[in-house]
Amino acid sequence: MSCHAVKAKAFLKNEERALWHDKALYAVREKRDRQAYSLPEWESLREQASQIKERVLGNLADYLEEFERNATRNGIKVHWAESGEEMNAIVAQIIKEKGAKHLVKSKSMLAEECHLAPYLEERGVEVVESDLGERIVQLMECAPSHIVLPAIHIKREEVGELFEEKLSTEKGNSDPTYLTHEARKHLRKKFLNADISMTGVNFAIASEGVFAVCTNEGNADMGTAFTDTHIAIMGLEKIVPDMESLAVFTRLLARSATGQPITTYTALYRQPEEGKEIHLIIVDNGRTKSLADAEHRTMLKCMRCGACMNTCPVYRRTGGYSYSYFIPGPLGINLGMLRSPEAYGGNVSGCSLCYSCSGVCPAKVDLAEQIYKWRQQMAPLGVADSKKKMIVKAMNLMMRNPRLMNAGVAVAPYIPRFVYNNGINPWCASGREMPHFAKKSFRVLWNEGKIKR
Amino acid sequence: MRVALFVPCFVNALYPEVGEASYKLLTSLGLDVDYPLEQTCCGQPMGNAGYEKDAEPLAERMEALFAEYDYVVGPSASCVSFVREAYPRLSHHKGEHKCLSSRIYEICEFLHDVVKPTALEARFPHKVSLHNSCHGVRLMGLSAPSEQNIPYYSKLHNLLSLVEGVEVVEPERRDECCGFGGLFSIEESAVSVSMGRDKVARHIATGAEFITGADSSCLMHMQGVIEREKLSIRTKHIVEILTAQE
To answer: The whole model's pTM is what?
Structure first.
């Protein structure tokens, strides 16, 4: 069994919880649908977004340089990092230069990708996640299980218990409003105490040298307003050409992600205030390698809305932790393979090829088709499952020899059912009966003249 | 117009009645239908498992078997969509005929788009829940995918409206995957069954007596769940309803 299959099975052991997880995420998918259906131009917006991203990827170096020129002119200090390590080192260096000790950050999947928080903590920096969901998983000392809804797998009662322990909230109170207010008070102290802030970047507008940060809690804005130094980190694919393109993406992002017309806060950072600094680190960390991969470069069009996860019937029923890559779902299967087939090949089985992800993607990334392609690469890359290989070999033998197949089909109905309809057969073991072989196949009936009458 | 019946391997062995109904349905509309012998498998299971290249000899076999026919029609949306999508990559036929991928149709699609019957001699006085299979919907366009903002349509629904007495409903989450997925059903069997149970439950919630659709593989998987859990609903391929005389 693949590592995804093993963890998925374990997750499904708690049927009630799996069902709850599925329903919670499907509700988000439905909210997304309502938004998508309410815009007559929805499909053409997706097409526009896809084309804009294609254009950016085709001219990425030019756009990045244009962005750097304009951002620098605006007074933003632009840094380049080839790897996650380099990004972390630059961040640590800036923090050191500022003599800062308390970093308050908004959500950034790039920070997760580069293991930034543990890196800084090892160097004596307090890192506080200011997005509520991220703060919950941080206090629980676990990783986000979804890229937009990091704590979606945690029930409110569990949050209540966590806050009791960490924030000294009332015993047994898991009222969401109460807990949110308590979190707000707790985070307010952290904001006031912070001496440096960090945000991710949703979009970097090349023609303006401006970058956009989208949040629902205003936590990015709060963090950057309170501190004198703002470090922003972005993957180099986050570029959009101009403000008109940005408008396309801001219309798509929140509708796809959470079913809102737009994120509550969409902050554009153009230049630092008097006496303050904005540092922007543009990170490669394998992205140019993906760009050079003609088969899979389309993954760089992704705007990290998470819609593919919310619609994925496998993700919904197996949770974020059943995937070995830090990003789960159809997106994570693909990005994991781009990162390392050896390390993350075990996620590729977690797809029934239903193609729903390709249909919801606002940038028209063909996620399912990409997974199909990766499956074809598993054997050549030497990471294929040996059992599956054997099954395919057996099928090949049978299907390439009609006489053998016909003989098998003729014998099958006479084999006692218990021989194959039992707990050893994985088809049955998991809760299904085997189909029943017909006494006479269609071919036999045809040959006997029973069809053509 | 010469039409060949493509009976996928598992339909041949498990559901000959589906092949029979397909034949009956096509001939009842005045079509000249043949069934070339020595059909095996289109290669889809290998493709989905990551061994599409292994399907090459099967693609060559299918090309040769069906070379002389104007249309090749099969009662399985996923097999047909595999032939359509993958054969241009797999078969290297040199003959005068066009590649099979351009001549092959799923049977409902063929009736709906090519034959366009205005009446069928069929009667099925039951409530049926439509199973909109993933490949049928999202690869073949048998109905409007729920993900997209396009006007609702359903070719299966349109055809069923020609059957006397049938009441057609759709389950909640009308085109969510049932969890079959070829070798996925074995490799990720726990997930597959969980999806199957949920799907069957939603079909049952419609109050229908039957689940029907254009993919025997989904129906097979769901029937397996139904039998294990001893549920009251049954599966029936759509061609059996389009030819029913109840």
So the answer is: 0.96
